[in-house]
Design goal:
6-stranded mixed beta sheet; homodimer; alpha+beta; 17 strands; 567 residues; 40% helix
């Protein structure tokens, strides 16, 4: 990973640059955020030509350490108005790493309406006209596989991104070619779309840029880390079997499962959408379904799944907890087949299921369609597909939809929809939603595993403040967050394996310090973008409306929230 | 003006409070802003129950000094997310003053869907059920006049405000009972609407709270001030004859007349919408039309007008420059009859013509309807009237409409539409749009009268910085801004006439200092609301796209803009 590729779509130029010294020890989110701070006017319009989109594998990208090849995308978010990074599993990070690309910077914008895709192999990097512009991600991906064979990896957007919808994400392909590993949050798909870039094709065939500093020692330490993962009850047992959907049982029990636009924290049909029922359905149906599937090659956790219909045919893969929470209970839909179908539709449009679930929830709450009506929800997504006025509104996410429909119950923080943890039930996540530079994002500092009363406001600020840099470590190394319960207590081992991979010696303490620095880079960007501590808060309905059953409101004091970002 | 009336709509309580010492020398905008800072959490949701709406006459309210009875409304704006004051002529300020009311604070909110109006006379203040809820302002006003006679003054909102549309203003009645004197900007009509308050009826009959400290001396000085107004070419001649529409000739000549969504600064049909043509039409048509009409009783400038159709029947009154610019040239419409009709429709819906003109301009620019098509523009307003999804989008103003339609050319600053001065043609106003606590608002610091090259970026920050407190002085005394060209150089006389009215001795210098203080109050509110100097800028298309003819872009450097609000 010795070069940075810069693609200027205005000029149509592609340049390869050596990695500057200051970027050498940065990867993934820390790198995308630092490049954005260095190169982008934080006050720029997110969907204007001054914004940039940066892709980067993590520091361990391409290595065979389990769960270490997540890809980060970074840009100024049209939802939050601040800096955003979104990451995903899939195959693109490893492909970039093999091609020796530490970061890919997309800047400028193509002429209006002119769509291109970027082709990269070991010998050339070219912009090519995108005949697949306008197509859903599944068909577009299929066309590119037909053209370039199944060894390629793809990064691509759907019609939502092409149209600049703020709810649009960027997806990349898994090992079997499914274009469904989403860098979903922040509307970065729109940033890619308005630049006129439909896809990036990565063909790493014959590219061997990866040189382990000490492959043998890496292998040894890898064994030890894999054992830690296997021995951990979450990563060794629950995740492989039930996937992320296992969380539904947990959040439902503690009154934190978003239900009917966050009007309740428990759902009467929770046992029809939880991990056990999902496992039951997949295993009894057989066919294409799989309960234990790796989102990245080599992952030993394999929390992902393939969801098949009753006829055994694949509907969507994966079906994750966040989608189940936002497009299931949050819409009053207690049917996994229906949720899977909505998930597929969103994927094909290239839209984030969290943002769209929250959006449809707001629309239901305002009476546009009834709660629980999955057909009507699919009809709303058809409006989005058809780009009607209503579809455009919905495609811009929960805040715009709520504003237009006159909602006073819009579950967003800094303009971005809340993931599937009601912050009145898991107040530590509420602190993260309110204070993270990422806006409402459960991956930016999740406190759910802490052994505390999650409705007690007191311990939450400290928990979130501790969780946020841990997320940054994972996001910067390219690690899945799910390794952190097992490996988070062993930062020195993570540092060591990075050294064995790269030859760069760091300590666990230095990793943590670098993560704090990277958070400060993001805070700095946001401050310059005009976000201020005054925006570190949650919507009034979350502080005013007690959840049924628990009676909990979000009551972490504002002054505690503000302290999180004080330096 | 010895009391403050507080109406709590949640509790249904009405209380009368003595005026606190700190409010004694504040009036109009300075008073509404100070009360908001003192009582409202700046981080609150503008359309939530924590926001308040404050009405206040100026310090000279109710006096017979010409042009001195404008009424201010203040609240946190759903457009800018910051503090907002909007003011208007009409009769409400004098009525409040006669009733001895220095400020009227509306807080809390009625139960959902329950609309009330407030009735005030010299003996009682009551909330009454508003059977006229849902009606346009013209019919609603008529009903209230039928019930209470023609001596009352009304403050009211239209369906737009009731529905919480961000483009909604608050209107009040003129001396002839027209409900068309709008406190238009900032979406304060929505703040009133979501509280469930349709109208305020003021019956000052028999109320004589006004006691001149020295009426005789006031009369003497008034004569002198009136002479200054009469001798000034603007207030003595141009305004009475041509009204504000005179400005169209000026801005068209200097390439600053918004044309086709701010894509040009000059309009080929400018001579069909300017002051001379308006004068010509009104005078040749006769009938109900008037070229010289007072928006407040006793005003000697009489810049207002009554616009009649070719059959002599009144269409709308007044037809002002801002409406002509935004709903005329900005839409490519060169026909005053068409503009007057659109104006009437907006008035009846209770919507700000500046915001709606900019909104329709964005919609035209995005191809929703063609430029120049007044029928299609009326059809869009019919969508708003019918509360369709498209209508809701449009009703929320230019920014939401532009976001939904994917526009990159949204003429707003801090979320609020720009008035009829293209900031590339009058860069001092661009500085005001970018830096005023009020967002894009020409009344917050107009530099058009300065004798400079308005496209030279250098002198503009200083001009705006000087103009902003002058606006505050006028807005706080209840004075029309149009007196300032004549009286702005005589602050000591304004201070003196205030002393003769109130008995409170201040100097001109103290007036200026108080205005600076009031601006700081607003800046403080905005800072706490989360607005930061990073937002003190104009849209990228204004800095990127040169205006045809002049080739001018908005090029006042960002660092100069930021200096404006530094203390």
């Amino acid at each position: 990973m010795d070069k940075i590729i810069r693609v200027n779509l205005t000029a149509g130029t592609i340049t390869s640059e050596p990695v500057a010294e200051k970027y050498r020890q940065l990867g993934g989110r820390a790198l995308t955020s630092q490049i954005l701070l260095d190169e982008v006017d934080p006050g720029c319009e997110p969907l204007g030509k001054r914004n940039k989109l940066v892709f980067a594998p993590g520091l361990l990208g391409g290595s065979f350490l389990s769960s270490s090849s997540r890809i980060s995308a970074g840009g100024k978010s049209p939802l939050t108005g601040g800096i955003k990074e979104a990451n995903a599993g899939g195959t693109a990070a490893a492909a970039l790493s093999k091609l020796g690309i530490k970061a890919l910077i997309i800047e400028g914008e193509s002429e209006k309406g002119y769509n291109q895709y970027l082709y990269i192999d070991k010998e050339k990097i070219e912009l090519r006209p995108a005949e697949m512009a306008g197509l859903g991600v599944y068909r577009a991906a299929k066309l590119l596989y037909e053209r370039y064979g199944d060894k390629i990896s793809q990064i691509l957007i759907g019609p939502g991104g092409e149209r600049g919808y703020s709810a649009a994400g960027i997806t990349n392909t898994d090992a079997q070619g499914r274009p469904s590993r989403f860098m979903g949050r922040g509307g970065l798909g729109a940033v890619m779309g308005v630049k006129g870039l439909k896809a990036i094709v990565l063909d790493p065939t014959g590219a061997e840029a990866i040189n382990y500093h000490d492959r043998k020692a890496f292998q040894e330490l890898n064994k030890e880390l894999v054992k830690l993962l296997k021995d951990n009850p979450a990563t060794g047992e629950a995740y492989p079997k039930y996937g992320t959907a296992a969380m539904a049982t947990r959040t439902n029990a503690i009154n934190a499962l978003p239900t009917r636009n966050f009007s309740a924290g428990s759902f009467e049909c929770a046992n029809r959408i939880d991990g056990e029922y999902l496992y039951h359905l997949i295993t009894t149906r057989g066919g294409a379904g799989e309960t234990t599937h790796a989102c990245m090659p080599g992952c030993v956790i394999k929390c992902s799944n393939i969801y098949a219909a009753s006829d055994g045919k694949e509907v969507v893969a994966p079906l994750e907890y966040e989608t189940i929470g936002l497009m299931g209970s949050n819409l009053g839909i207690g049917n996994l087949d229906a949720i899977a179908r909505l998930n597929y539709i969103c994927n094909d449009l290239g839209l984030d299921t969290i943002e769209m679930g929250a959006t449809i929830g707001v629309a239901m709450d305002q009476g546009l369609i009834p709660f629980g009506d999955a057909e009507a929800a699919a009809d709303l997504l058809a409006e989005v597909a058809e780009d009607t006025i209503l579809g455009k509104v919905l495609g811009h996410g929960a805040l715009i939809t709520g504003r237009v429909l006159g909602s006073r119950r819009i579950p967003v923080a800094k303009g971005q929809a809340m993931p599937a943890y009601d912050p009145r039930g898991v107040k530590g996540l509420g602190v993260t939603y309110a204070t993270s530079p990422m806006g409402a994002d459960h991956t930016a500092g999740n406190t759910i595993r802490a052994e505390v009363d999650h409705t007690d406001p007191k311990p939450q600020p400290a928990l979130s403040k501790k969780a946020q840099p841990m997320s940054m470590i994972a996001d910067s190394m390219g690690l899945c967050l799910f390794v952190m319960p097992a490996l988070g207590a062993h930062l020195d081992k993570l540092a060591r394996i990075y050294e064995l991979y790269s030859g760069i010696k760091v300590s666990g303490e230095e990793l943590l310090k670098a993560a704090e620095n990277a958070l400060n880079v993001e805070r700095d960007f946001n401050r310059r973008a005009g976000l201020s501590p005054a925006q570190d808060r949650l919507p009034e309905f979350m502080t005013d409306e007690p959840l049924p059953v628990s009676g909990s409101v979000f009551d972490v004091p504002l002054e505690e929230l503000r302290k999180i970002n004080e330096e």
